[in-house]
Design goal:
This protein has 414 residues and is α/β, with parallel strands linked by helices. It is built from 17 helices and 14 strands.
């Protein structure tokens, strides 16, 4: 453990060191914004010590950032009776705004956040399946509505939109075909039309289509990887440098953070933990997605003739007294324990973080049960990670989408 901490410390020190070369000024600006964001507020002298940049370079950059409305001055602090007082600087929440679009199996959501990550507007839509036209109509309608909620000078500070969606959405056609007949009847699902709509995702470049309509950059990422990025940016209460992340949604997925950076892999789909083989409570081999997804709980409830639209409408209010939910929690947490052990054999994670489209009490019970199950499994040769609840919550995917332009344009990994 000591060597890992020392290595992380060395990496952080290197990441915090800037360069006085004029060609790297944009990087230095992002570096200073990142450091101030991590500390809350800092004076120029403190930033110079951290970055090893000259006092003159720091002054020039911070004057520009202040002129661009990205930094605000706080009250001067005087240390002693002589010398100039220190003037701490902090991020201006209204200095930049970012949209995040989440496309999910049964709903889409668009959020608007400020420079500190505070959500200031949310628009949502529910559907039986994600059709491209409906998603695009919702996106542009919601962007226009949220933009109008800002003052004219704030509208000019919108700095991008990030899209968080499952890759290869067209592969969900099997899920439509397997939808219980009762659900199809209740929601009037035309299965053939639904399959055609899902297959249309194979021929659309959502990022390009949206980018053609907007005056700011568009970024895209796998939805649960984006949720992991939101936890890295706005959660991570223990400030761990390496963690594996699970987001329980319609399907469970995940993400990986190594050395304080989101690792997305060559295809952008690293951390596709739903496909991880696990051992079920019945002793049989299965995939995590088949045990720990909310779809599995929905199927259990429908099999008992229990209507369960509330699973998707209101993640803060589940019928927790139902035996099917207790059984699902036990099975899901058992599978999560196996997945955490398997992941830890590859990377020595400090933490495993679990979040999802879940009421807080359900998430707490899943984490509690996972901690219990992992102690019952054979993992003697592994330094197991701590298991924690995610802090971002149900909106992690859309907030993670919004964090993409924030991170790309204003931050470094510092």
């Amino acid at each position: 453990m000591t060597s890992r901490v020392n290595k992380a410390s060395e990496n952080n020190q290197k990441a915090n060191q800037g360069t006085n070369q004029s060609g790297m000024r944009a990087y230095n600006e992002r570096l200073i914004l990142s450091i101030i964001r991590n500390h809350g507020s800092l004076a120029k002298a403190d930033i110079a010590k951290i970055t090893k940049l000259s006092a003159q370079t720091i002054s020039v950059i911070m004057r520009k950032l202040e002129a661009d409305n990205l930094l605000l001055r706080e009250s001067p602090l005087r240390k002693g009776k002589v010398g100039q007082p220190l003037v701490p600087m902090k991020l201006n929440p209204d200095g930049a705004f970012f949209f995040g679009l989440k496309v999910g199996r049964s709903s889409a959501q668009l959020v608007l956040i400020d420079l500190l990550g505070k959500v200031i507007n949310i628009e949502s839509i529910e559907y039986n399946y994600p059709a491209t036209k409906h998603i695009l109509d919702f996106t542009f309608r919601s962007i226009e509505k949220a933009t109008q909620s800002l003052a004219p000078h704030e509208q000019k500070r919108i700095s991008g939109i990030g899209i968080a969606l499952p890759f290869k959405l067209w592969m969900w056609t099997d899920m439509i075909s397997d939808t219980p007949k009762k659900l199809q009847a209740n929601k009037y699902i035309d299965v053939q039309k639904a399959i055609e709509e899902l297959l249309a995702w194979k021929n659309i470049d959502l990022q390009k289509v949206i980018e053609e309509k907007l005056d700011y950059p568009v970024f895209i990422q796998n939805d649960t990887t984006a949720a992991c990025g939101a936890e890295l940016a706005f959660g991570n209460s223990n400030n761990v440098h390496d963690f594996v992340y699970f987001y329980i949604g319609y399907f469970i997925g995940g993400g990986i953070v190594i050395n304080d950076s989101l690792f997305s892999g060559k295809s952008g789909n690293a951390g596709a933990l739903g496909s991880m083989p696990v051992i079920g409570k019945d002793g049989n081999l299965c995939e995590l997605i088949d045990v720990a997804s909310i779809k599995t709980l929905e199927s259990k409830l429908l099999a008992r003739n229990i209507e369960c639209d509330w699973l998707w409408h209101n993640p803060s209010d589940w019928q927790v007294d139902n035996d099917a939910i207790a059984e699902w929690i036990d099975n899901a947490s058992h599978a999560l324990a196996h997945a955490i052990i398997s992941a830890s054999t590859v990377i020595d994670f400090e933490a495993a973080i679990i979040d999802g489209w879940l009421p807080n009490n359900i998430r707490h019970e899943i984490v509690k049960a996972t901690r219990k199950h992992i102690t019952e499994l054979n993992a003697k040769s592994i330094d197991l990670p701590i298991i924690e609840e995610g802090l971002v919550g149900v909106h992690a995917r859309s907030i993670g989408g919004a964090s993409l332009p924030l991170a790309k344009r204003f931050l470094t990994k510092a």
